[in-house]
Amino acid sequence: MSLPSTLGALRAAGVPDRTVKEELRANLVARLRAGDPLTTGVIGYDDTVLPELERALLAGQDVILLGERGQAKSRIVRRLVDLLDEWAPTVSGCEINCSPYRPTCGHCRRLAAEAGDDLPVTWVDRQRRFAEKLATPDTAVADLIGDVDPIKVAEGRTLGDEDTIHWGLVPRHNRGIVAVNELPDLPERIQVALLNVLEERDVQIRGYSVRLPLDLLLIATANPDDYTNRGRIISPLKDRFGAQVRTHYPRTIDDEVAIVRAEAATPPADVSVHVPRFLDEVVAELVAGLRASPEVNQRSGVSVRFTIGAHETLVASAVRRAARADVAMAVPRVIDLRAVIPAALGRVEFDLLEDGRELDIVEEELGRALLRVWRHYLTGTAFDGLVRRFEEDGCSVLTGDLAPGSEVLASFGGRIDGLATWIAAVGEDDHAEDPELAASVVEFVLEGLYLGRRLSREDLDAATVRYGA
Questions:
Q1: Which residue has the higher pLDDT, 411 or 129?
Q2: Are 221 and 105 found together in one domain?
Q3: CB 348, CB 362: distance < 8 Å
Q4: Quick one: pLDDT at residue 229?
Q5: Is residue 22, in this structure, part of any structural domain at all?
Q6: Strand ranges in 162-293 using DSSP code E only, listed in sequence order
Q7: What is the crossing angle of helices 253-263 and 304-325, to 10°?
């Protein structure tokens, strides 16, 4: 790279001298003028969270993101790194990224006084100017701020010498972004030390005070229960944040499905997988119902990670069936939704007066979710002929988690009138000829008719079901 290597060359090249917040503001303004979003890969926040965050950055404020688990707080923080300049000049050999224009540490100040315009310059990429720390009760002042290095003392320096300090995470990311996840879990004495650096601009280590005017953007995340109820963030530190931005779970089913399809793990390359959208919508409706249920602990929330995990479980169940039956394409079916329920019991916290009802609550909510999606797609579709086939002809359909689609369709004993209409109604015309997709749509239709009390369903075992009159 043909970048200036001395302070004099830096000035001659017209490289601006600006703080990290000025840098972020300038790059954000350029992005907004170009019509580009603040960040990519975050769905459902365009009209809520992102505008608030843009205003905070334009105002040059430190930010706290407040929200339950699984609301993309950490992702948003990490994407802000893209707003930093690709490269930033620092004094060569400096541990805390001192600006050549404004040296911060004692070593760089002395070096600048001696070298003048010949002060050597090194360029640091944006990723090295970002630090993320998960706050834990065992975090020490030395981790964040620094401590006396006994090796440097042994070399002959005195304890009061600033050069004896081994800098912690915060000073080492001077002129960058420092993110503290779950800030309320940080012990109060550590919060005081952090406040001292950010507000008072000095470091107190082992009884020695060192002036250290750090230039950084502090972003913290917290759970609302910790932040507002337990009050574990000390008041002066709360006041240090210029903006508080509330995150939220997806507010529409479309947003939840879009997140799931963007974030779910990719299936094995040697297996062709197609997930009907109506099944993803059933899972999203299930999660939405759990988030609104009075029997679920809403303070802990129901994370989007649950929705993603449920999607991955559906795919895994379909791949397992396809491998056993040696079929070309794996397509999840309603029977595979049963595999989602055990995962829910581990990911969702319940508020119940009596134990043992967790499974019933999830199963009931799953039934309501499936019926809502069924009515969305199939209300107005005539099923009288299909119901008569069960009632008058004695038809019954057997399905299981390992039964290939061809077996499910064969249970009808002949042509299935209306199948093409049902496939079109759920928007799966592109795969209409595939028996696995056809079986998935048929199971969806039959389960909806069962939930609507027009057919019966007999659970022969945990993985086998028979539909009848």
A1: 129
A2: yes
A3: yes
A4: 47
A5: yes
A6: 165-167, 176-181, 202-205, 208-211, 216-222, 243-246, 272-273
A7: 60
